[in-house]
Amino acid sequence: MNASSHPHIVILTGAGVSAESGIPTFRGAGGLWEGRDVMELATPAFQRNRDLVQRFYNERRQDLLKKEPNAAHHAIARLQREYPGRVTLVTQNIDDLHERAGSPEVWHIHGELLLSRCERCYEVQHCREDLHSASRCEHCGQSGRLRPHVVWFGEVPYHLGDLDIKTRDARIFAAIGTGGLVYPAANFAHIARSLGARCIEFNLEPSDGVFDEFIEGPAGQTVTAWVDSLLKQPS
Ligand code: BJW
Fold it and tell me: Which of 7, 27, 33, 170 is most buried per CB count within 10 Å?
């Protein structure tokens, strides 16, 4: 297979790609937000109830450290390593399961759970321990100003400028395990399609997005089969 005959693939993943690793999705029964006030947890309401928000992320961080990537993460990583054309992986997830599966490049538009950010000096640091009111920024020395390095509603997602430029020549756009309800990610398929990409959705149920093809089922199975078929294509 040679690169020129292989179209650029852009993959957008959401919480559903990590569901088979035991990480709950956000919405719906059993979701992370079930029975909780989203406005308290995923907006800059952090200022009002810091302890509650820190606890929510502390629990998720410790839980993540016990989880492992699943077949879908491994299949995507294999595609990135073995496909002769370009594969750009964009994730809304804050877990590190794509990296642990061996993905060489991952664009985390909603941040990363294993990083913290200082609200005073903006330094981003590795974070595997719980954050609390006495946590001290190693860079500026200030206590109590570290927050999870994640993007809440009303905040601007990361890497959008880079991705806009990098993904314009995509010919295949695959949305895997995302409900398509949160912007700007929910618009990516519309943009890709308007620029000529074939848009494929992998999910347990179809979203309202503009996809050319819907592949139903758990990502661990459907994405593995898709990657196998892409890598078997003759040059
Ligand atoms: C499986 C499966 C299996 C299960 N196999 N599939 C009105 C209109 C339009 C926009 C807005 C509006 N009002 C406000 C906005 C903007 C707002 C927004 O979108 N709000 C909506 C609620 C309407 N967006 C923002 O504020 C964003 N910022 C912004 O717009 O800035 C302005 C700006 C933009 C661009 C340039 C300049 C300025 C920020 C959004 C931040 C989102 N943050 C969160 C939390 C991150 C930290 C954390 O993890 O706690 O990100 S919210 C949450 O939702 C998280 C997720 O990444 C995101 C998306 O969720 P996802 O991944 O889709 O999960 P689910 O649970 O919804 O879906 C899972 C899917 O998997 C389901 O479909 C299942 O069926 C499926 N599934 N198991 C395959 N095994």
Answer: 170
Picking from 109, 73, 72, the residue whose alpha carbon sits closest to that of residue 94 is 109
CB 111 within 8 A of CB 34: no
**Which of 43, 56, 114, 182 most suits a substitution to test ligand 1, by most atoms within 8 Å of the C-beta?**
182
Active site residue 110: yes
182 lines ligand 1 (CB under 6 A): yes
* pTM for the full predicted model: 0.96
Condensed to tens digits (0 to 9), the pLDDT of residues 39-85 reads 788 887 888 899 999 999 999 999 999 999 999 999 999 999 999 99
Average pLDDT, the chain: 94
Q: Is the CB of 150 under 6 A from ligand 1?
A: yes
According to the model, what pLDDT value does residue 1 have? Answer: 47
Ligand 1 within 6 A of CB of 94: yes
- pLDDT for 123 beyond 80: yes
∠ CA 68-15-107, rounded to 5°: 85
Q: Nearest residue CA, atom 67 of ligand 1?
A: 179
What are the residue ranges of helices labelled H in 50-181?
Answer: 50-64, 71-82, 97-101, 160-166
* pLDDT tens for each residue of 166-220: 999 999 999 999 999 999 999 999 999 999 999 999 999 999 878 999 999 999 9
Which of the residues 110, 139, 149, 159 is marked catalytic? 110
